[in-house]
Amino acid sequence: MKAEAIVSAVLSVMGNVSGQHMKRIQAREQWLRWRVLKKRGASPTLIYCGYRQDGWPCQASSQNGVVFRVANRLYSARQYPVREDYATLLEELYRASIESVDITRNPDTIRKEVNKWVSEKTNSKIQKLLGPGSVDEKTKLFLVNAIYFKANWDTSFKPEYTRSADFYLDSENTLKVQMMSSEEEYKVSDSEESNCRALEMPYKGDEYSMVIVLPNEVDGLTSLEERLTEYDLRSLLDGLKTQKVQLYLPKFKVRSNKGMIDVLRALGVNALFDTDSVDLSGIFPEDSLPVTKIIHEAVVEVDENGTVAAAATAAEGGSSSGIMPVEFAINHPFLFIIKRNQDNLILFMGSVRNPNA
């Protein structure tokens, strides 16, 4: 899987940023990025990963009840005009528009405009990407990327089967959650090496699916995140086989809002943020402005009908009938992935430690 994580999504939309910066990022796999975030204490509850290594974003679609939209926009201060060839590149490759705005005089007005645009593109799932004070007179540019994904399960969970049940936060603590249940055929796999199991739930049309990666141990999520490699993940996905399953899945909602500059620095991308070494000459004809802020927010909601997911980034500056079902109870912390099936392109990946949080 060569999908790029959100750090690449930010820079790829910037198109003509120095090739050296892009190579630094594209040399690393998306799962490595997840692990770097964990090791640096960034606690990546959720990240959007929907960019391929060649820099092209996933194309918007709305088939079989699946809605998937990607929108990009660059806000630039009027005193720093963007090169015409770069503007053309953004439009042709990324369908991105450029807004020249008077940030110096009306920084908070611009902030509200950005939030309004993101809210519209994410069906109001993300309404306040930029908080008060995040835009000031020193701000020169905003790179904004908004994603909205909504899909219904191929086989919906019946609401009348949803019950209050225990979810183990760890080996000692539990909480009550709304636990959905279904007895259907699902694809499952297991890994002795990674001490976990996986289950795939398709959305209508079978173009996209969600994969749950469940540690075998109640307290196993942190350890799984630290040791699971992309090869392990690929093996889990390749090993998925259809079985009759009694599935128990909690309703959950995950929201994450992270500053990403420390993450990019951890991946070796430093020059982009340093005044003395930054090279954004492909964007601005004269000045090279360091990027001062990158904010990524994402939200995923799962219920009986399906999934709603949204993300936004702002960069400143066989049959088994008659066989007893296998039980797959997702009753302790787990990982989840939303992917496109034709190429296993990962759109979102996240962790759930408390479904009610």
UniProtKB/TrEMBL annotation:
SUPFAM superfamilies: Serpins. Keywords: Glycoprotein, Protease inhibitor, Secreted, Serine protease inhibitor. InterPro entries: Serpin_CS (IPR023795), Serpin_dom (IPR023796), Serpin_fam (IPR000215), Serpin_sf (IPR036186), Serpin_sf_1 (IPR042178), Serpin_sf_2 (IPR042185). SMART domains: SERPIN. It comes from the Eukaryota. One of its GO terms (molecular function) is serine-type endopeptidase inhibitor activity. One of its GO terms (cellular component) is extracellular space. It is found in: Secreted. Residues 34-355 form the Serpin domain. Belongs to the serpin family. This is Serpin domain-containing protein. It comes from Amblyomma americanum (Lone star tick).
